[in-house]
Fold these 2 entries.
Entry 1:
Amino acid sequence: MLLCPCGHTTNGVGLKNDLLPGRMLLMLTLINTNRMVPAIGPIGLEYVAEVAAGAGIEVNILDLALSNDPDESLRRHLAGHSPTLIGLSFRNVDDCFWPSAQWFVPGLAELVRKIHGLSEAPIVLGGVGFSVFAQQIVEYTGADFGIRGDGEQATVSLHRQLQGGRQFDKVEGLVWRCDGKVRSNKPAWPAEISLPARREMIDNRRYFALGGQCGFETKRGCNRRCLYCADPLSKGPVPRSRKPAEIADEIESLLAQGIDVLHTCDAEFNVPRHHAMAVCAELIRRSLGEKVRWYAYLAVMPFDAELAATMRRAGCVGINFTGDSASEKMLVTYRQAHCREDLARAVRLCRQNDMKVMIDLLLGGPGETPQTAAETISFVKSIAPDCAGASLGIRVYPGTGMVNALNREGPLDAHPGLRRKYAGPIDLFQPTFYLSPALGPEPARLIKDLIAGDRRFFEPMAEQPDAEATDHNYNDNTELVDAIRQGARGAYWDILRGLRNTER
Ligand code: B12
């Protein structure tokens, strides 16, 4: 269904909205499309819902993750409601794991098709994964609109334009169709962010029971330029921080629902350090550190004794560091600010402050050799984190430094390091991974041999179709689902670590 702001369309949507009376009731249906398990609460969708409701829009949520029969739930919802706009959140474009490489865009296109068959309301897509490929996803799925970046203000603004002026070029972040072409406004990354502290639009209690934790966000955007990372593309190139009091209010809102295990939803909690300190100070001032336990993703730098102790007092019980490598050569390639000694210090500080620690590794990047991989694994063993994620293969996102680095080595179609499961020319929209050819024909075997049974490591999975899962892919992870059902709570790496320790 094509929608054109100039009013040229003759389809149902265009006519319907053209005929809308001046001030009709706005009704927004928001749909969570992410059915991956363990289930993660759609926090982005919830923020959008709270802001839209606050702006006077009637909001209904259809959470397909919590439905046993999504098709039937969709049919029933649209039979009982007449939304003026339908928003779909699309969190994961793919699962970012090689060799699993599951791509979720075709499933989204199928859902868009079904909704178009059931309702005349225009469809707008949004989400973190969506924002990396916004225009391509709108084109591929046939959705009417998309919003790249923050969805809160943009959704309200789109809804108002649909009702009145139809000046779609005024809606920040909007991807829209005009005269048969898909156009993209500049991304919605407002410099100031203030988010609702109320968290009552989705069933967070149920997500806590099914997912073992709930998310909260302290900032958006990242000013680091790690070679492979798509965060600046979806969240913007500079950090945009929330006020600490607002974050503490939000945690109190979750706590009032009995949710006391949380996970940050920032790229890196400690970038910038002063904001991390300010957030912790506010949590400590309200004694929240004694009432909630939370986990965070952190850059290895900046991290020091004061920050570690303050985070612990504020309730942090586990940190997952973006370690990437312990080979100095690879750290330079990945454009990391830290060196291997910083990794050792980070682990030590976590131990001294009674926080669990995971080091996330990215093995197989450009220039990785058996020697650099061996160096990394042996160093990580020696500094003894609680666990380490040995991911092998890097998802290549368009617009990141990875693409420039690979292009310098020759045409992508002929690149010996690229792995994918689709046929035809290289298409970075689909899951495409880089794995250094220097690691030889059986890179997973090589890494497993280096890990040599050390159970602190989550090993990469072999590429054979019948290979047993040994990695820490949380996509349809039944081991985690079962553990959470039986009461486990926390970051997934910490739950998996606990399971391994009890197996011994
Ligand atoms: C925290 C996190 C986790 C935590 C989640 C903890 C928790 N309780 O929430 C854990 C560790 C569990 C996790 C797991 C996974 N993650 Co993760 N995760 C993140 C992270 C850092 C934050 C996501 C988040 O919640 N952001 C905050 C919310 C508020 O932002 P948002 O969702 O973007 O929503 C905003 C907009 O997108 C928009 N929006 C959202 N919905 C809608 C809907 C409409 C209609 C509109 C208009 C707008 C809109 O408005 C919102 C508010 O402004 C992101 C990276 C990042 N910086 O965002 C990766 C990220 C989302 N994860 C990713 C992946 C791949 C995964 C896994 C699949 C990995 C795996 N294989 O195990 C799993 C999937 C789990 C699942 N069940 O879905 C990728 C997705 C990339 C891709 N290719 O699609 C990301 C982007 C990281 C990356 N760069 O690789 N993750």
Note: The two ends are 57 Å apart (CA to CA).
Entry 2:
Amino acid sequence: MDNESYRVFIENLTGILYVLAGIFLILSLVIRIVNFIKVSSIKDYKGKYDYLRTRENKMVWYSLLSFSIAVFLILNTFEKETILISQWWFIIRMFITACISTLIGYVGYLILKFYNPGKIQKKLDKWRYMPRISSTGNEMKLLTEEEEDVYLDEGMQAEENIFSVDYDVWVDEITKEIKIEKYAGYLEVLKCGTCTFQTLKLREEEIIKPASETEDGELLKHYECTYCSSKRTTKHKIGKLLKTEKDFKLPQDYVLKGERKVKSIMIEIISNKGERSEFYFQSKEDAASFLTEFEYDKSPAEV
Ligand SMILES: [Zn+2]
């Protein structure tokens, strides 16, 4: 590109970048505003709770993403005179600004992942325990775990007993009106196909065919409903074992000098939890065939 057309290109590009940066900056703000309006427009406290729990973090993330794109675009309009000196500066600017905006996005991601959940939890608690108002306008009372059982049917109680679902029962003490709200419990439990309560628990996993390096294995998962006792079994695939040169395999060209003098070969296996196990073999063939059979969960150190 000759100097004149390069100059025209940079001038045009700078104009476009200003417009795009503006669009992304506005988009970032609009997402935040829409989110705020959405939360405020939900009248029902439980509705606010559900929205916050499922959507809040995602919306903040999209807003942040638009913001870091805007930063990237605006930074690429800086130092125009320097950029005009050489086309290399154009590439260097692009690289540096990409690093800066990625960093902003990444820091934002970390905040959303580690700091924001605590903040959202506070808001969630606020909406969950804010006194409900009954249809006649009275303030309702939240019952304790012991008191609420009277209002929950057996299936609901079974769900609560295995911590899959948590029910809140609100009562209007004057009119006796009841409001039952369903919240996710601490443990993830599946929904039973027979009684439709979230009371299906994994009882046992059974490997019917272990995976090898060449073939997939098969696993059966046995579930049992803690409420209606119906059973369910599902079949799952176990992926082929990946054995690369890097993990459990002795290099092909590995020759032990004067092998007859070798008394034993020790293999030390360190798991990703930091547990160490040592195994001794009399020949490298034994060691190699051990490695092809080895499965950490079945190692003697674990048993
Ligand atoms: Zn069931």
Note: The chain has seven helices and eight strands.
